[in-house]
Structures are given as structure tokens and as C-alpha cells.
Amino acid sequence: MNPPPLYILLVGPFPETHLLGPLSRYLERAFGLPVRLHEATLDPEAAFDPSRKQYHSSEILLQILNAAPPDAHRLLGLTALDLFVPILTFLFGEAQYDGPAALVSIHRLQSEFYGLPPDPMLLRERTLKEAVHELGHTFGLIHCAVPRCVMNASTGVEGIDAKSLLFCPQCQRKLEAGASRS
Amino acid sequence: MIKNEEVGILVVDDEASVRESLYKWFKTDGYRVDTAENAVAAMDKLGQGMWDIILLDIKMPGMDGLEFNRKIQEVDPDIVVIIITAYATVDSAVQALKEGVYDYISKPIDPDNLNILVRNAMEKRKLTRENVQLRRKIDTLIARDHIVGDSRQMQEVLEKVAAVAQTDATVMIQGESGTGKELVALAIHGNSLRRYGPIITVNCGAFAETLLESELFGHEKGAFTGAHRLRKGKLQQADRGTIFFDEIGTISPKMQIDLLRVLDTKTVTPIGSDAGVNVDFRIISATNRDLGKAVTDGEFREDLYFRLNVFTIHVPPLREREGDIPVLARHFIEVFARSMSKPVTGITDEAMDMFEQYAWPGNVRELRNVIERAVVLCQGETITPEHLSFPFRFKAQQRPGESLEDMEKDHIARIVEKAGWNISKASQILKIDRSTLYSKIKKYGLGEGP
């Protein structure tokens, strides 16, 4: 019997569709789950904060949960919107710790955000890292002190670029334990 | 390095979204984290667990952040409190800093700033803990009895140490070489109010005049050839602590004037600098000379002598505290056996008799060295006469007297013994010819057995 799938949901306009193929393939390998795209109607504008011109990440995460297909093992929201939670200036992504849903924004992963020319390869790498990182939290992984581990905390793109796409051996073991538990 | 799971963070904020976001943020970082919606709930949690860092909203209904911070300081002043504030309340945050809050952070928080702030707060907490541990360690070390001796003379020394330590009086320690003057200085410092400050030792006899000046006062970069960088002098290093001048009787007349000026003004001017630096230290000096006589002979300034000699402690030579020899011997056996990991635990009566018969011109230091060597040589559990190296052939009745002749006899006997009765070698050490040495050996009846 096939394991239940990991669904990717696009939140809001997402022109960078070229990311979806590599992302699906990598997530399948990293988590051992079939990855499918789920067409869901979400309303991100309900999470928009006009004073901050950003979207409330936790509210979108709730919408993703509510739109989950019944056979979903994990859910990954992918968006180009700029995310925030009230106490923080921005977020690259958010996840439910040991829960089914995660959300990643490519808004601040794009070189253009920092006044640099577009770099599709770099964007792909950053997106993969952030997606693996946030999904890692859904399997009960916390931030890792190993600098190259994908679970190392990053508060800037420099940090994302410095780490690798891989779990360190200890996080890999925890991931496997988390996967068998769920 | 402190692990995140060892750090407890309590988030106190009336906004649920703030509590939830920060809870999640710190949880995924692996911290032990909890939240409270107001000061009353936080107060309960304060009593329930060990919190290292409290993130506290400044504006809350009921008890506000500032008031709650005062409560935290009463319960545990070592908890690191970080105030969360909106821009409109920066003035209050500044007020909070004055009241012992570690730092404040404005909403919304930049994730990078939050991480750095928490890391710095952990570092502060770690340093505070280390500081407390080091102070405890200092207190334990001080409490341990480093000055060994049950004799009446040593008890008097210890009574004087206890009497003067808590005052800030200047102390002069007099005694022969090897009697333990530095240990007495350490005991005074260790029992003083300055014990958490440094004790800086300056061996005045070990430096030429110009070097001692640079050592004491420090120098600016380029003050003289070789002064490649700015260097803080020992007097400045001793700020808030004690400076211990060993062999003070050896300093030159110029240094005596310079030192007197420092004592008068409590200001140090590094070489090559125009600006004086205020310093606050206690002075303890030590000498094996009769400084009173040096004053009479015009070799030591009288005014400096009186400044340094406010309270005098005389450390008696070992030969005047015979009862301490067995106590000290056993103490050193224990110390060296432990440091060398050897099973030596005792000493034969015969060897101890020899110790008690000997005059110990090098005092406790000599006894210490003899025992160190004996422990090295000893293969069993007990030190015997074969392990001893000093010229123990002198019986108590043969101890040197105070006359020059007595001293000469004692000295020649020791050197001849040291040279293994090789007269040529002994005469070279003594810088006298062999015939003179032979005649002195004959005169004093050396080598004729006890």
C-alpha cells in the first residue's frame, strides 16, 4: 500500500511554477512520501494586514489545514506573499510543530527583494531548503546547532545559503523516528 | 556552552498572538518555554520553575511590566529580563533599563535581533552563574587553611591576620626567606573585603630599576624603545584589590620616591603619559631585611617606611616553632603524594627525629623541598632517612647560634655536605682555597660525627 501523500498547495498568485517539479522530486526523496499538487481555493486576502502590507502567516496556515484532502499525510503551502506574525517583522515560513501543515514564502528568498538580479538556481535552492526545514518541524524536529544541517535556524538568506539541503545524522534519525510515529 | 534545552524562557504578554508566536519560535529553537497572559499568572509560574530569561510586555492590564520587573528582582535578581515595547513606550523602556532590566526590544521584532538578544542574554546568565560559582570557589579556597601550624607563634600570626584583614590598613610582613610571607599576604587579602578583587604580587628584587618602573606604572605605546604596545602596570592591575610588594627592601631610592608619591596621591601615571589614573588598592609589603636598620643606615626612606609599616606581622623562622615541623611535614607529604599520585602516607620516627633536630635555615620552603624530593624517591608508603637529602647530621644542640662563627660553621658544614665531602668542589662554591677550608673543617670539628 502506498503511503499517504504530501500535498503542495499554492497560496495566492505563484508565477514561479518552474520550482514545483524540482521541489516535488526532492521532497519525495527527502521524506519518502508521494508528492501531489492540490488545487484548493484559499483566501489569502483575509489574512492581509493593510498597515503592514503583509499576510498573517498563522491565519493562512489555518486555511491550509481546513483545505486538506482527507488522505493528506503532510501539507505544504507555497506562496509568493510576504508573511508575518504580529510580534515579528517577517517570516520565511511557518510550520505546525509535530503537526500536518507547513507554509513557505519565496517572497524574501528572491534575489530581487535585496535589489539583486533574479537568480532562478539560487531561488530553487533556497526554496528547497526552506520547504525541507519547515516540513522537518512537522515531523517534530527542532532547530539544530549543526551549521550545515538543513534544520539550522536561519533569520536571513545568508543563513539559508550557508546551510546544506541535508539533515545532519542526528536530525535524520529523529526524522525517521518522527515519520514512523506519524 | 549552555544547551538550549537547559534554558527556561517565560513570555509574559497580554496579546495571545504574541504569546503563541514567541512560544512557537522558542520551542522550535529547543528552549524550555512557557507563557503567561498577565503579571499575576506570571507570578505563579515564577514560583513553579526555574526561569533564566523573561520576555515581558511593558504594557499590560493590572500590574504593568515595570512593576512586575521589580517583583522579579525581589524573587531572583539573576533572572535576565527583556522588555517588549512598542515605539510609543521607549521612555518607559529606558526607565526599565535603569531598574535592572537587561535590554528591551521593540515590536515588531526582527527575527535576527530576537535571536541575538536571547543569545546575549544567555551569555549574561552564564557569566552571572560563573561569577557566583567563582565567588563560592574563592570563599572555599580562602576557608581552607593554607597556613599550616599549631604552634603558639603561628597562632599569633593568624590572630594578627584576622585582626588586620577586614581593615584596609597597610601591612608589613617581616620574616626570613622561606617562612611563608606570601601565604600570609594571601591570607590577609583572602579574608579582606577586597577578596573578590585581584592580588597582584611584585617581586621587587627580581627587576632592575627601569624595568620595575615599567612593571609598576605601565607604559604608553612608544614610551621607550621596545614599548610596542600600551601596557597596564601592576599598580593599575591591582585596582580594587591588593598589591603585594615582596622584597620591598631592595627598591632603589628613586623608586622609593615614586612609590611614596603613588601612596600619597593614589594616582598612577604610566611612563610616557601625562594623565594620571586613579587607583584603589591595599598595600601589603614583605621583607627579610631589618628595614628599621636600613632607615637608620640611610638606605630606606623613613617616610616610606612609616607609610608601609602601619601594621607589622612577624613570621617566625621554622627553628623557633619546632612543634610545627611534624605538622608541616605530614601536610607536605599529603600534598605531594596527592599531586604525584603516589601511595606515600607517612614518615618513620627516625626520619621525623632528623627533621626535628635540623635547623632549617631555608625554613618552610626548605622543608617543603626536602619532602617533595623524598616523595619522588619513596617507592613505598613511608618516608625513611634514605629518602632525605639535607644535612640532618646536626643535632639540636649543634644548631647555629647567632654569632658569625656559628653561622660560618653551619654554612661550611652544609656546603661540604652538599658537595659530598669533595673538598675541591666545596672550596670552589665557598670561594676559598682548599687549605683554608681544611683548616676550618678542623677548627669546627666537622665530619667527626654527631
Descriptive overview:
The complex is a heterodimer of chains A (182) and B (450). With 182 residues, chain A is α/β, with parallel strands linked by helices. Chain A has one domain (6-181): Collagenase (Catalytic Domain) (3-Layer(aba) Sandwich), CATH 3.40.390. In chain A, 33% of the residues lie in helices and 20% in strands. Chain A has 5 helices and 9 strands; from the N terminus they run βαβββαβββββααα. Chain A has helices at residues 20-31, 57-66, 120-138, 157-162, 169-181; strands at 6-11, 35-38, 48-49, 54-56, 74-79, 83-85, 88-91, 93-95, 101-105. Chain A has a 5-stranded mixed β-sheet with strand order 2-1-5-9-8, with helices on both faces. In chain A, strands 3-4-6-7 form a 4-stranded mixed β-sheet. The longest helix of chain A has 19 residues, at 120-138. Chain A is globular, with a radius of gyration of 15 Å. The two termini of chain A are 16 Å apart. The model of chain A has no long low-confidence stretch (mean pLDDT 94). The radius of gyration of chain B is 32 Å and the shape is elongated. Residues 393-398 of chain B have low confidence and may be disordered. Chain B has helices at 16-28, 39-48, 65-75, 90-98, 111-143, 152-165, 181-190, 209-217, 234-237, 253-265, 291-296, 302-308, 324-339, 349-357, 363-377, 404-418, 423-430, 434-444, and strands spanning 8-12, 32-36, 53-57, 80-85, 103-106, 171-174, 199-203, 218-219, 231-232, 241-246, 267-268, 277-278, 281-287, 311-314, 346-347, 382-383. With 450 residues, chain B is of the alpha/beta class. Helices cover 47% and strands 14% of the residues of chain B. Chain B has a 5-stranded parallel β-sheet, sandwiched between helices. In chain B, β3 (53-57), α3 and β4 form a beta-alpha-beta unit. The longest helix of chain B is centred in the N-terminal third of the chain and has 33 residues, at 111-143. In chain B, α6 runs parallel beside α7 and α13 crosses α15. At the A-B interface, β7 of A face α1 and α5 of B.
